[in-house]
Amino acid sequence: MSLLRACSLAKCLGRRSLADVRRCFADRCQLCVSVRSAAVRRISETPLYLQRRNISSVIPKSEDAKKRVHEQSQLLDVLEARIQQLQSDVVLDVQHAKVQFLKSPSFRGGLSSVRTLKGSSKDKSDIPKSGQAVTKRASKSQPSRWMEKLSEEKKNKLKKQQILQQKMQRNPKEKLPGKSKASRSSLMPTSTTYKTISSAAKKRRAAAVTTAATSSKAAEALKTSKQKRRDSKSKVSDKDATNKPEDGDLAEIEELEKRLNEQAQQRICLSTMERFQESSTRSSCADIQLSIRCYLEACVFMGDVERSQRFLLSQHRVMSRRKQLTTDIYNIMMRVWAKKGTLNQIGRIFILLEEAGLKPNVSSYSAALECMGRNKNCPPKVISRCLDQMKKDGLSVDDLFRECVFRQDERDMLLKAVQTVRPDYEPSLTLNASQSSSPLVKDFYTNRDHHTYPKLDFTQEDLQRRFQHQLSVEQACTVTIDSVEAMKPVTENMVKMRELLAEQRAQWQKVLLQALRENKMILTKTNTRDYKLNLYPYLCLLEDKEYVDIMIQSVSNLPPSGESLKILAHDLGNRIYTKYCVRQKHQNCIVEKLQSIYGAYTELLAKDTKVCNVLPREQWCKLEMEQSSGPTLQGAETSWPYVLMLELGTFIVDIMVKNLKINSDILNPAYDKKLIPILYHMYTFRSTRQVGFIKPHPILTQMQQEAMETTLTFDSSVMPMLCPPVPWTSEKFGAYLLTPAKLMRATHGATQHEELLEKCPNLHPVFDSLNQLSNCAWRVNKPILDIIISIFNDRGSDKLDIPPPLSEAPKIPHFNPQDPDYTASEKAHMKREVINAKKKCSEMHSLRMDALYKLSIAHHMRDKLFWFPHNMDFRGRTYPCPPYFNHLGSDVTRATLVFAEGKPLGPKGLDWLKIHLVNLTGLKKRSSLQGRLEYADSIMEDILDSADDPLNGKKWWMEADEPWQALACCMEIANAVRSPDPTKFVSHFPVHQDGSCNGLQHYAALGRDVIGATSVNLMPCEVPQDVYSGVAQQVEELRTRDAAKGLKIAQVLEGFISRKVVKQTVMTVVYGVTRYGGRLQIEKRLKEIDEFPKDHVWDASHYLTRLVFSGLKEMFTGTREIQDWLTESARLISKCGHTVEWVTPLGLPIIQPYHRTRNLLLKSTMQHISLQVTHDTTERPDTVKQKNAFPPNFIHSLDSTHMMLTSLHCHSAGLTFVSVHDCFWTHALTVDTMNKICREQFVALHSQPILQELSSFLQLRYCSTIQSEAKNKKYQEYRRLMLLLAKVPQTGDFDLQRVKESTYFFS
């Protein structure tokens, strides 16, 4: 510690900013970058701005010399005393303050890693710009008492270290402890990389690191011995039972350890959950390696082989950079030389691999053999030698064909080379027919005799034609459609504004094209060092005009209130990446092969082909194996890092802001004519964070609003697909034809989910479920859509959830803050009015545009049939990929969708339509199905009136909870009852069956809780049990009792406690809502009641939240025990330094990506963008998020498993099935069949020992490597975790088979 302070004292006294002191640390002692200091952390506990203020007050700006010297002397005395206190710490264990600035691997600006500790300031003024150097100024003053004491202390420390080293040499077998917590957490964080220094500096650093390493080991040994002495003393005096385990606990722990060791040896579960969390060092290099790989691939794609070769060699030459290279990075250049047939260059890269200490892999040998296959003069002896070497490395020729990803004709050239020396060789390819290990689906895959997989209602020729249409859409990457606002009558002003905008855009295109080319020329002349990454290759992947079109499109889509620079930049970067992926697939000849395989795949789906009991995934894999020659369809593209997309997008935005201009008098000739920018870069505050914004000029906003343009342009991935999606066959391939899609949605930059999925042996049930959901064809309900559009183009309707136009927005008041006529309170009031009006306008614009997009897409698809490809989140919950228009949307969107395939109603179909309509009204939730049916018959006149005259009749449908779906159902019922035979009426309408508080249903089944199961309809009852009404009734009883005792707030609430007030809180308690969140929910409901006194809302919401939580605790005792067990398990797992993982009963691995926040700083010429990274695996887990999220995430993973099981068995029964999480949809004809399957699969799921298997998995995952020595500092935490996991909550006496008889389980 003292050595560090000696290095930095002179600067510390000469500067007022603590940030300067930190930079000084880096100048004086390079070791500070890689080790931490507990002392500096304690000194830095106060916020940064307070530290600066304190230091500046200790060292005044303008004082006489005597006073300054006196105060500095006082400061020296304080620090000197602190030094003496820390002198016992021999370890040079120094944290580089709170903020680490290291050069980034990427591009022009770069990234800095900022580790934010508690209380640290986020003020950007404390962050130096990129490239800013810190000058080194030696103190010219004479040596002081401080320096003398430090030099003396340094000598003493060196003596102690020498003595320790001598002792260690005498006892060489003594084991040193591992790295301390501080040193482990101070490893270089993700997105940071090497720092280039001169050769002399390297030598100095090497010497410093060597010395530091030696002294650090010695110091750790001394520290450990001291700790042991302290521990031995504390054990004598410590009476705490937690630190002194009883004999029974010890026996139980020993038994658990023995059992875990046996399981660990057998590795029963490890096939499902292989370790993927690498060491911190490897994780910190992952982003750098990905950036290097993307850069090389971009250089190769643009044809600049020389640049890519120079870059690779420059990385290889320097040892610090060579360590970041992988075999796959070298293989990129091998592929290039293999295409050219240059064998000597490939030989050189093999030498480079050996120098780097890396082994060639299958791709390396594949490239070498491909090159030999292209080279007509290659001797067979060379090929044989290559095959022999490959065999020595433990690789076979079949491995090459099985594991390599081929492009263009690479596979054919590889086969040609092999057959030169082995003429009879043919690749041995076998279809991966391994079945899921889950007992839940074993019978589904093995016994298919009674399966009747449904066919689509299309001919094979029709499906192939639809494929070609979808292919052309994805090749264009964008779709331009008519806006529903185009239906409005065109005025003269609209025509004028449209012409003006068209003229300006033509001019902007020319300006942007010129600016882009100039910027590219500048980039070619800057960062000329070979090892530097820059953006130039990424600006050459597409035609210049394509970049300009992306810019113009983003300007058109910019909202009047502006967009965050971070969001806008990422959107631009992602569009470039999508176009690049599509062009890559063209270049690699994937499109031709895709056409061939998809053409054959339609035979499985079409109605005019033979029936076969094969799933879509299985058929696709079979066709791929049969057509194995040519390129590989999957795994060819590399995902770009989030930071790269941001930096590329920021570069594009910078060009737009600087070059897009407009005449100031374009709308008003009275103004002075001058060119003004149409986009402004400004800052605003989001909470306490300063955020960069790109805002359009009001002139541009006015022109766009008045023009009411007739077209909208979307990315192709936003639109539904025009043909059945490609089935998911792996975690990297499925959904769209060419557009890249992810199987599992995750936070930008998070990779742990993908890595876990890649190592999972079998995800077939998950793939097959997603494929079943994706293969459901849809069409638009045109009568409903036309009514919605007419209201949308009129003035909207808040009651019917159709947002009004901006002309209905409140006017923003204008006032002069300098006007002396206003008092201070009046000015404050006016400011609030302005802020609220702007906020309201912004919200109205967002809602209006969202509705415009959905309705315009629906209008565009009105005469077409379409499909929604599906993927899932990290818990397994499924979602349609198109974001705007899908069946997971609002009531408005759902009402416009019906199944493309129709089925006759049959004997009970009309009754199900009527029951579904009553469910949509929300009026008869406590009534039986027969009661609901009788109610529907009693209001048939209102139903028919709503269908015939929805806007001018009685408007009964408008009072429903879901008015638009209710209206659609009224029309379907009207058509059915007026048909000659309702049983033969062909219905396309989806009927819903919704779970009764599904989260609580899963908890009640897990705990076999009889009372809880009855409350949520797992137990058969004559009428449905409504848990929300039950809780509301219980709360009302408690309120009445309190009111009788004279409690004022209980008296105020009389008559206001209803099902609606408590419903949201009851529903979300099971998903981990806190009392704070529950209070906000109840507060919102109370504010919606006009009669409730607003001055009592706060007290009433607090009071009701307490009553609701108490009532739930009494009703669901088993639920609370399981929830507490899950929460405490996650807390202890997180405390031990792990993130929580588990595997669903279907075999889907899940990991919670919640880590402590690490701030990354992306530096660009526009601004520094601060990124809060919460998924960095090198950071410790966020204990609060881990424990709070585990119960709801675990239940979500169970409800997704239940849905997937239901979808698989509905598919095998020939049903049309889709879901909105715990709400299942099918035709009216097949509701009874779906209900039967739904109940059977719920019983099958919960008949598995779910909690016991979870307990075993967590014990094996987290406790199998437990340190058995009680002196280990983490042993107590592991011991508590082991005991907790072993004690699975007790279950009740509920008989699961009763669920099969429960009418209202899903209804």
Gist of the model:
Residues 62-89 form a coiled coil. Its EC number is 2.7.7.6. Helix content is 54%, strand content 7%.
What can you tell me about this protein's structure?
The protein is mostly helical. It is built from 48 helices and 24 strands. A 3-stranded antiparallel sheet has the order 1-21-22, covered by helices on one side. Helix 37 (998-1007) crosses helix 45 (1183-1212) and helix 41 runs antiparallel to helix 42. The longest helix has 39 residues, at 199-237. The termini are far apart. The model is unreliable at 1-63, 87-144, 172-245 and 264-283 (pLDDT under 50).
Percent helix range: 40-55%
Q: Which blocks of ≥5 consecutive residues have pLDDT under 50?
A: 1-63, 87-144, 172-245, 264-283
CA radius of gyration is 34 Å
The strand count comes to: 24
Content-based structural category: mainly alpha
- Beta-strand portion reads 5-15%
| Alpha plus pi helix count | 48
Mean pLDDT: 80
The largest sheet is:
3 strands, antiparallel
Distance N to C terminus: 69 Å
Q: Please list the strands of the largest sheet in the order they lie side by side.
A: 1-21-22
Shape: globular
What's the arrangement of secondary structure elements?
Layout: H1 2-14, H2 18-28, H3 38-43, H4 48-58, H5 65-86, E1 110-114, H6 145-170, H7 181-185, H8 199-237, H9 247-266, H10 280-301, H11 305-317, H12 319-322, H13 327-340, H14 343-355, H15 362-374, H16 380-392, H17 397-403, H18 410-421, H19 439-446, H20 460-476, E2 478-482, H21 492-525, H22 544-557, E3 563-564, H23 565-587, H24 590-605, H25 616-626, H26 642-659, E4 661-663, E5 675-677, E6 679-686, E7 689-696, H27 698-707, E8 711-715, E9 726-730, E10 733-735, H28 752-758, H29 764-774, E11 777-780, H30 782-794, H31 824-860, E12 866-867, E13 870-872, E14 878-880, H32 891-895, E15 897-899, E16 903-904, H33 906-921, H34 929-938, H35 940-948, H36 963-977, E17 986-987, E18 990-994, H37 998-1007, H38 1010-1015, H39 1027-1044, H40 1048-1052, H41 1059-1069, H42 1075-1088, H43 1097-1115, H44 1117-1135, E19 1141-1143, E20 1149-1151, E21 1158-1163, E22 1168-1173, H45 1183-1212, E23 1218-1220, E24 1223-1227, H46 1231-1246, H47 1250-1262, H48 1275-1286
Antiparallel strand pairs: 1-21, 2-8, 3-7, 4-5, 6-7, 9-10, 11-12, 11-15, 13-14, 16-17, 18-24, 19-20, 21-22, 23-24
Helix pairs in contact: 1-2, 6-8, 9-48, 10-11, 10-13, 11-13, 13-14, 13-15, 14-15, 15-16, 15-18, 16-18, 20-24, 21-22, 21-26, 21-27, 22-23, 23-26, 24-25, 29-45, 30-31, 33-34, 33-36, 35-36, 37-44, 37-45, 39-41, 39-43, 41-42, 41-43, 42-43, 44-45, 44-48, 45-46, 47-48
